[in-house]
Amino acid sequence: MSRKTGVDWEKKAKETLSANAFGYLSGGSGSEVSLSYNIKQFDRYRLIPRVLREVSLTDTTTHLFGSSIQAPYLLAPIGFHTIVHEAGELASARAADAAGVPFIQSTVSSYSIEEVSEVMAVADHYFQLYWPSDDDVRESFVRRAEAAGVKGLVITVDTPVLGRREIDLSHNYFPMDEGAGMANFLADPVFQARYLSPTMDSAEVKQKIQSILFNPSLTFKKVQQLIKSTSLPVIIKGVLHPDDAKRCQDIGAKGIIVSNHGARQLDSAIEPLEVLSAIREKVGNDFPLILDGGIRRGADIIKSLILGADAVLVGRPYIYGLTGGESGVMDVLSTLKEDLEINLKLLGATSILDCHHDHLKRLER
Ligand SMILES: Cc1cc2nc3c(=O)[nH]c(=O)nc-3n(C[C@H](O)[C@H](O)[C@H](O)COP(=O)(O)O)c2cc1C
Ligand SMILES: O=C(O)C(=O)c1ccccc1
């Protein structure tokens, strides 16, 4: 990835983190075709500005799931933040809170749902669920998220198994080996009672977590049952086919995240922007769609919004920023906001609602 937001946090991450940790963060699956196309997807479109529009004031705020957010992006769920900085998710969540944009906490976070929820005062806190293959642990995670007051559940469905990431295989690296990503399990009463014993060493604990982390037998039906059983809105992450998007809508999901998991799951998975319009057409105008993968600049956000997204997720840029702790993440978020504001003005728009199809052209080549 060659594009940067503000300070070159990617370079800083590469220089300061171990090759193993940086490889894990930056890498994709298989031949990494999707990884490069996630960045290039935005270049197939050009923006057509309109002039003389009085753009001295620009408003980047929008509404998502009933909340006002300061800019149309959220921090993507990323596991294992303490491999980057000891303050981990607490720093990222505080930075999101300061920027007034939501933070989506991963199941494999290094601080628990309860600890992250404590540090978020203003912005929305979402919990991303990797559906454990043990139903009682899953149930316990959902009840804890409800009790902690999270805004919604994000269920990731593109990970029945982990994608094959050659960089990690070549390093024999798994971030849990650094003690990261286990907090939600270690703090869970059901997990503790069922899987932990005082004589266990850390290798055994990790093995227990990994043995239940993913669930290849998940179906629409099971997700529908969960939707019915919780008071929280459920958003489904990792959908790329319009018919799947429609099924998510039909089973009661409140929105979906159009995503190829930052090109880390299916090798050669299609770029999210390529399927966005068809998904929007299928689900209608009133169903929230969030796009992620390769968002690096304000113009990428504008193109996503024009093609049908209500908001986007930002992944790697902020996790690289976390090498500078909370202020590093804040720097990434404020640079992105500034870039979005400047580009809205240059487009001739005073708000994100002003971004329309007549501002966009898809290139033939
Ligand atoms: C290091 C890393 C860890 C990730 N961990 C998770 C995770 O725990 N849960 C999840 O749903 N997605 C996870 N993702 C995927 C992101 O939520 C998001 O889809 C992706 O990073 C977006 O692409 P971008 O990094 O190009 O912005 C992870 C991505 C990265 C880079
Ligand atoms: O790295 C990832 O993308 C990811 O989602 C993950 C989750 C759990 C274990 C390992 C990787």
UniProtKB/TrEMBL annotation:
The active site is at H261 (proton acceptor). InterPro entries: Aldolase_TIM, Alpha-hydoxy_acid_DH_FMN, FMN-dep_DH, FMN_HAD, FMN_hydac_DH_AS. Its cofactor is FMN. Its EC number is 1.1.3.15. GO terms for molecular function: (S)-2-hydroxy-acid oxidase activity; FMN binding. SUPFAM superfamilies: FMN-linked oxidoreductases. FMN binds at residues 77-79, 106, 128, 130, 156, 237, 259, 292-296, 315-316. It is an enzyme of class 1 (oxidoreductase). Glyoxylate binds at Y24, R165, H261, R264. PROSITE patterns: FMN_HYDROXY_ACID_DH_1, FMN_HYDROXY_ACID_DH_2. It catalyses: a (2S)-2-hydroxycarboxylate + O2 = a 2-oxocarboxylate + H2O2; (S)-lactate + O2 = pyruvate + H2O2; mandelate + O2 = phenylglyoxylate + H2O2; 2-hydroxyoctadecanoate + O2 = 2-oxooctadecanoate + H2O2. Keywords: Flavoprotein, FMN, Oxidoreductase. Residues 1-365 form the FMN hydroxy acid dehydrogenase domain. PANTHER family: FMN-DEPENDENT ALPHA-HYDROXY ACID DEHYDROGENASE PB1A11.03, S -2-HYDROXY-ACID OXIDASE-RELATED. Belongs to the FMN-dependent alpha-hydroxy acid dehydrogenase family. This is L-lactate oxidase. It comes from Halolactibacillus alkaliphilus.
